[in-house]
Amino acid sequence: MSTAFNPAAFPTFGHAFIRPDFTLPPETSAARLKILLVDDHPITRQGLKVLINLQANLRVCAEADSAEAALAQIEEHKPDLAIVDITLKASNGIDLTKQLKAKVPQMPILIVSMHDEGVYAERALRAGAMGYLMKQEAGEKVVEAIQRLLKGELYVSARIKEKMLHRAAQAKPDSPAFAIDSLSDREMEVFQLIGNGYSTKQIAQKLNLSSKTIDSYREHLKEKLHLETGPELVQYAIQWARDGGAGSAASGAVER
User: Fold this and answer.
1) CA nearest 83: which of 202, 159, 96, 72?
2) Domain boundary residue, one of 108, 143, 162
3) How many domains does the chain have?
4) Could you give the CA distance from residue 253 to residue 251 in angstroms, rounded to a whole number?
5) Among 171, 180, 201, which Cα is nearest to 243's?
6) Can you say how many angstroms the Cα of residue 15 is from the centroid of all Cα atoms in its chain?
7) Do both 190 and 234 map to the same domain?
8) Which residues contact 182 (CB under 8 A, 6 or more apart)?
9) Among 135, 162, 189, which residue terminates a domain?
10) Which residue stretches of 128-229 are H helix?
11) Nearest-angstrom CA–CA distance, 253 and 56
12) Which residues form the domain of 130?
């Protein structure tokens, strides 16, 4: 038995719905640009799909909950734009963005994620995305972001624009913020998991890597962040996570 979509059960996007029993605009599908949704939460995809399909020039052509599925959908549906979350099954949206840009360089990618834009927006842009949007704002701004990207424009918040300009003008190579930004995507992923309290074994299981590999990443992190011991790395990562990323990265190294 099918279940009607309930906007009340979708707090992130629910305020954007006027009536659940909407009808699509009277346009042929051929005239509408195709959007691929990549997110491992079905209710998030459903909410985005409703918003996008209400637009006269847009339609969701396919959905995926993993990087593997997204790459298959690219081959089959050839979308005009992809919306990608950072957290995916057995992968992450930053790595997928790089794969998509290698496969379809001309296709714009919009990251829509719950992760703090202060931490991930610039990283996503460096990976090849053309926009970054927090899920908390997606109900109001996702259509605007899509339309901007389809015109060849970038889309980030005023906060991120200011941060990028400030960093370009004043960042020093030996500053903590610069050190965080110098981490590779995998190093950043391990660092975040350390900050969230994961052990080496748990990180290895989550990322499908060996414990020895995670130990190697820990050593790289200590070197890049100018930390001497494992406990210092854990303390710094936890503080960084508690402060939402940007705050602790700018606060300096941990006290010894």
Assistant:
1) 96
2) 162
3) 2
4) 7
5) 180
6) 22
7) yes
8) 224
9) 162
10) 135-150, 158-170, 176-181, 185-195, 200-207, 211-224
11) 51
12) 7-162
Q: Do 232 and 124 have their domain in common?
A: no
Q: Domain holding 201: CATH number? A: 1.10.10.10
Q: Which two tokens stand for residue 225?
A: 């962040």
Whether 20 and 128 map to the same domain: the answer is yes
Structure tokens at 65: 């909950």
pTM recorded for the entire structure: 0.65
How would you write the pLDDT of the chain (256 residues) with one tens digit per residue? 434 444 444 444 443 433 344 444 444 455 799 999 999 999 999 999 999 999 999 999 999 999 999 999 999 999 999 999 988 877 889 999 999 999 999 999 999 988 777 778 888 998 999 999 988 877 779 999 999 999 999 998 877 777 666 665 655 555 555 677 778 888 888 998 999 899 999 999 988 899 999 999 999 999 888 888 999 999 888 888 877 654 333 333 343 3
